Amino acid sequence: MKYDIEVKDAVIKLSMFGSFNLDITRTITKKLRAIIEELNNQPFYILVDLSTVEGGTPDGFEQGRQFNLWLDSQNLKAKAIICTSPLFKHISESRVRTSDIQLIEYFDNETDARRWFEKLSLENVS
Hints:
The chain has 126 residues and is of the alpha/beta class. The chain has a single domain (2-125), classed as STAS domain (Transcription Regulator spoIIAA, 2-Layer Sandwich). Helices cover 45% and strands 33% of the residues. It contains 4 helices and 5 strands, in the order ββαβαβαβα. Strands 1-2-3-4-5 form a 5-stranded mixed β-sheet, sandwiched between helices. Strand 1 (2-8) and strand 2 (11-20) form a beta hairpin. The chain is globular.
C-alpha cells in the first residue's frame, strides 16, 4: 500500500493506492492527527482519494472508524471522498462511518470534490 498526504490551504488530501491493513492505517491516521493538531482548531476540509484502493482488512477499516470518531471532535468542515467503486463505497460506509456529525459527500473525481469545498466555503461567508 502506498499513500500520499498533501496539505494546501485548508485542505488535507489523502491519496491511497492498493490495499491497506491495520499497520498502514495506523501510520496514516497518526500522521493525519499530527497535521490536524498543528492546525490549532482552525477549520479544515479532508479530501480522500480512494479511486485506486483495491480493498482493506477488517482491522484496517476499524482503525479508520476510530479515527473518524476522533474527527467528530475536531473543526472538520467537510470531507469529500473520491471513490468510483459502488461496492467499496458501501463497504467503507458500513465499516467506517459511525457518525452523522460529519458532512461527507462522495465524488468520482477531484475537480467536483474541490468545487463542493469552494461552494461550502462561500456559503459560510454569506
